[in-house]
Design brief:
single chain, alpha/beta, Rossmann fold, 2 domains, five-stranded parallel β-sheet, 14 strands, 48% helix, globular
Length: 392
């Protein structure tokens, strides 16, 4: 198995890949670190390591000689391919930032030849909240100046460009490109790479209306935990974009402050592939930059959620009528899954969410509605077996 991981600078790719490798070694009883047996089973490579070994990093990023940048990038890729060929690991994960961005310009222009030589079985595009990526670049600049100065909207554009380029590469190679937030549990990545027969499920649940309700959040987190424990679950809150809107509503003055408690990520019982480092929060963003991206925020969230649905086999919807009021976001996701993405939908709708005269808006021929969560999970497991049999 060869996996290609792509993402923009500011995504904690190395920690995510390291977490995946550690889990792989643990599952196979192999020692971690530089052990030869472990590296024969799984090796990890980062294109930037091969690039930095030959060129000054700051000079490379800031150069106006774009032809030189392209040549050095290709040369680094060739050296990496030779290393992979020489070591011949049974499994390999290759990580790279693509594209680079500096002083308003994306680079390098690349051809597909080295990617064809790499022959990845799958592409995974990593991303995080734009405010986290923005702050991480700032923290890096505080330690060692590279001249990287970005507005929040630059980070957002960079993130979307990485997904676009990964889609082009994957399409040309005839493989899947999974867009996955790095705060998904490490188990999600492990299953995606090494247990692809698992059911891929998008988790749809109330978010906006329960953000300030601790009991509701804990209940929903238990549902999320149960789904992550059993399936490859794509979870919308592994990247909490709405934390920026919450912070804007609570902040005054010229600076918007996002605090760690404003962010709702994965349940505390789960181990993410990448954790926010100490000192990252609070994130203080100039108000004009926050307001600049706010107008596109809903579209960004919608694209992310729909992308997760597209790459799933099914949608598991948790209590769309919680409080006897239909979640508009969930209804949009369910409609998209059924009518656009053509996915099977499984809805948990307990009797406590029913009201007098209330009728299900869900066509029973297109989805499964259960009043018992354990039964819903069994339905999903049965569907997993059905798909596994059909795929051979």
């Amino acid at each position: 198995m060869r996996a290609l991981f792509i993402g923009p600078t500011g995504v904690n790719m190395r920690q995510a890949v390291s977490s995946i490798a550690d889990l792989f070694y643990a599952r196979r009883g192999l020692p971690q670190g530089e052990d030869k047996e472990a590296r024969r089973a799984l090796s990890t490579y980062f294109l930037e390591d091969f690039l930095r070994a030959k060129v000054d990093w700051v000079a490379f990023l800031s150069s106006d000689d774009y032809k030189w940048q392209e040549e050095e990038w290709r040369s680094a890729f060739s050296r990496m391919l030779r290393r992979i060929s020489d070591e011949a690991p049974q499994n390999a994960i290759v990580g790279m930032n693509l594209p680079f961005f500096n002083r308003g310009r994306f680079f390098p222009a690349f051809d597909l030849a080295p990617f064809r030589e790499l022959k990845p079985d799958v592409v995974v595009t990593l991303f995080e909240e734009e405010h986290v990526m923005w702050r991480r670049v700032q923290m890096r600049e505080e330690r060692r100046r590279t001249g990287a100065e970005f507005r929040l909207k630059d980070i957002l554009a960079w993130r979307n460009t990485s997904i676009l380029l990964a889609d082009i590469i994957a399409r040309e190679l005839g493989v899947d490109n999974y867009v996955v937030a790095v705060k998904h549990p490490v188990e999600t990545f492990y299953r995606l790479l090494f247990e692809p027969h698992r059911l891929r499920v998008y988790l749809s649940f109330p978010i906006t209306g329960v953000r300030e309700d601790r009991a509701a959040r804990e209940e929903i987190d238990r549902f999320r935990g149960a789904m992550h424990a059993r399936f490859i679950a794509f979870d919308p809150l592994t990247v909490d974009e709405r934390a920026l809107r919450v912070a804007l509503s609570k902040s005054s003055g010229d600076v918007v402050e996002i605090r760690a408690e404003d962010v709702w990520n994965i349940p505390p019982s789960l181990s993410p592939a990448s954790k926010d480092e100490e000192g990252l929060y609070p994130v203080r963003i100039p108000r004009d930059q926050a307001e600049e991206v706010l107008r596109d925020l809903d579209n960004v969230i919608r694209y992310k959620d729909y992308r997760f649905i597209q790459q799933s086999d099914a949608v598991a919807a948790y209590r769309p009528f919680r409080g006897k009021s239909l979640s508009r976001g969930m209804f949009a996701e369910i409609n998209y899954a059924i009518n656009t993405a053509h996915k099977r939908v499984f809805v948990y709708w307990p009797k406590e969410d029913w009201g007098p005269g209330m009728e299900s808006p869900f066509d029973p021929s297109l989805g499964v509605v259960e009043g018992d969560l354990a039964k819903l999970i069994r339905d999903l497991e049965a569907y997993e077996e059905e798909l596994r049999a059909s795929r051979g």
